[in-house]
Amino acid sequence: xxxxxxxxxxxxxxxxxxxxxxxxxxxxxxxxxxxxxxxxxxxxxxxxxxxxxxxxxxxxxxxxxxxxxxxxxxxxxxxxxxxxxxxxxxxxxxxxxxxxxxxxxxxxxxxxxxxxxxxxxxxxxxxxxxxxxxxxxxxxxxxxxxxxxxxxxxxxxxxxxxxxxxxxxxxxxxxxxxxxxxxxxxxxxxxxxxxxxxxxxxxxxxxxxxxxxxxxxxxxxxxxxxxxxxxxxxxxxxxxxxxxxxxxxxxxxxxxxxxxxxxxxxxxxxxxxxxxxxxxxxxxxxxxxxxxxxxxxxxxxxxxxxxxxxxxxxxxxxxxxxxx
Length: 324
Ligand SMILES: NC(=O)c1ccc[n+]([C@@H]2O[C@H](COP(=O)([O-])OP(=O)(O)OC[C@H]3O[C@@H](n4cnc5c(N)ncnc54)[C@H](OP(=O)(O)O)[C@@H]3O)[C@@H](O)[C@H]2O)c1
Description:
The chain is an alpha/beta fold. The chain has a single domain, classed as TIM Barrel (Alpha-Beta Barrel). It contains 12 helices and 10 strands. The strands form 2 sheets. The protein has an 8-stranded parallel β-sheet, with helices on one face. The longest helix is centred in the middle third of the chain and has 15 residues, at 101-115. The model has no long low-confidence stretch (mean pLDDT 96). NADP nicotinamide-adenine-dinucleotide phosphate (NAP) binds next to strand 10 and helix 11.
């Protein structure tokens, strides 16, 4: 396994982060693994040297956190655990969502309880909250750090101007600043290259992209997009503009290069994102041990500059997707 420093935090993380949205409860999404298979996946990830795990309170409404905590019991110190808050957890309680002090304090305690941990390594805001001033959110997060419940704070998808406002507010108020950005980025969705990624590079922010395989669409030919359990039912995947612009041509080129490199399409998609200096660790989602092993093996693939250019060449701007 390769390790890298997460942004400017000094924390060493594996270059593959295991996304834990894929396990929890199949009652939440039918493609989600239940407990025993989820634990097996985490154990194999640890065997492969993965030390970085990303979950959220909303994944399977807390089940993902509970299973991750169970799988990591006895291995807490050597793991870097990231979770998030923002989405409403209880339909009857509007304060179980958003980024108010009340929501953050309650949801963080609930996450720690499910994880069975005293501290979370990286606590992330899942989305921007239009209803709460960012100063209020940052003060609550900073207090959580001071109380020892959180080591580092991070953010997920938002506009770059919002992220810049948040960093500026932290600096102005002398509070801990967001150290990481978890954003939507892959070969079929590159809108983040305009503003967010150069901004993160400038600010020393750790970048940990979500859906690096376009929710599976980069891992198989376009005509098989819906050929898996998740492909069939994942409305969010269909909602992203993956096949607009040059998407289909890019997908064909990924398949061609997979043949040339004697690799799978998923490995070419991951080799491409791993090659980006600004990216610390893509967050890979899988329900399969074999696919997890493929992701780790993708670290050994080095694409030539001309192949990278050829993969990128058909891309055309597509509508912003993931935080709008
Ligand atoms: N912050 C946010 O708003 C946000 C949003 C979405 C996701 N996330 C995070 O990012 C993580 C990853 O998201 P994602 O699951 O959408 O990511 P992804 O890695 O882009 O897509 C996962 C899909 O790719 C397929 N896949 C993976 N490896 C494969 C391989 N080698 N061959 C064929 N298919 C393969 C998986 O199928 P199999 O299950 O069959 O392997 C699964 O259907 C999540 O777990 C979560 O932690 C965050």
